Amino acid sequence: MRIAVIDIGTNTINLLIADTRQDYSYNIILETAYPAKLGKGGINDKMLLPEAMDRGMTALKTHLETIQRHGVEKVACIATSAMRDAKNSREFIRRVREELDLNIKIVDGKKEAQLIYDGVKQVAPIGRKPVMILDIGGGSNEFIIANSEGVLWKHSLNLGVARLLDMFHPSDPITKDEIKNLERYFRKELEMLFETMQQYSVETLIGASGSFDTMAAMIAAEHHPHIDIMLSTTYFIPVEHFFDWNRKLLRSNYKERLSMKKMAIHRVDTIVLAGIFINFILRELKIKEIWQCSFALKEGTIFQIIHDQLR
Questions:
Q1: What are the residue ranges of helices labelled H in 202-294?
Q2: Domains along the chain?
Q3: Which of 56, 157, 229, 258 has the most CB atoms within 10 Å of its CB?
Q4: Phi, psi for 123 (deg, rounded to 5)
Q5: pLDDT per position as a tens digit, 79-110
Q6: What is d(CA 241, CA 235) in angstroms, rounded to the nearest whole number?
Q7: Alpha helix stretches (DSSP H) within 190-234
Q8: How far apart are CA 42 and CA 33, in angstroms?
């Protein structure tokens, strides 16, 4: 069966098309993204602005045209932070159903975290020792402590980079005082995580999709130019390479970031905040190694569909 998964995120609406097999495996046919910025301007007011809805409709129309060309038999459409928080999300859901004949399923934060784990575990180096999986989204960040046997703890927090950008409006380049303000905010919001981490010894961070994909592509372009990140599912990032990358971002302005190798255009305004957040997590949790994983929510959704776990 040919399946399509549409992932309606706060910044990007992603599409993945795959052929499933009888042995519960699948083959990815196509993967593409549309930077709709659904949460722009209204995310912290819990509203989808009219222009954001219009961008979302355009993105979905584009993906549905792709789906039709590829003869897809089943479509799953998942929405996350921006949609689940917006007071007027029902309006957008109704419009999509009436105009595009597409049903959107909003998943809560814990379900999103489980889908991310089910995606990551397919390709990432997860053994018996617990690891921290982190997905930095536009609206929320998902934290999953897990090992090869399953999820030990999971939580979703409204610390996504689009939300932070809308809330803090940092200078360009960002200032030291602004970084300190952000970190104070992180420390307050992450109290539950820090309490939980007292129960687990975690040295490995696995960054899933989004900002981590851009970070890995940029670091690989500098240190391993022979590696095509688009063709790999995981990439090991030495912490010193991360720190070097992050320092360059902190000194850069928007125009300078635009010219950086492998910078995703739709992340130019948020990647600095992602770097600050990752740096904070590495330091506070004493993380020793970083892996990037391109599999996340979309691949986890396909896994659950194949195994009849998606409800």
A1: 211-223, 239-251, 254-258, 271-285
A2: 2-106 (3.30.420.40), 110-297 (3.30.420.150)
A3: 56
A4: -135, -20
A5: 999 999 999 999 999 999 999 999 999 999 99
A6: 12
A7: 191-197, 211-223
A8: 22
Q: What's the rounded Cα separation, in Å, for the pair 3 and 18?
A: 5
Residue 138 in contact with residue 293, Cβ under 8 Å?
no
Q: How far is CA 63 from CA 4, 67, 220, in A?
A: 10, 6, 29
Which residues make beta-bridge pairs with 105? 78
Q: Map residue 63 onto helix, strand or coil.
A: helix
> Is 237 in contact with 217 (CB distance < 8 Å)?
no
CA distance 233 to 157: 25
| Per-residue pLDDT tens digits for 143-175 | 999 999 999 999 999 999 999 999 999 999 999
In the numeric block, which tokens belong to residue 168? 């803090």
The length of the chain in residues reads 311
* Residue 204 DSSP class: E
Phi–psi pair at 24, nearest 5 degrees: 75, 15
Amino acid, res. 285: L
Token pair for residue 122?
């397919």
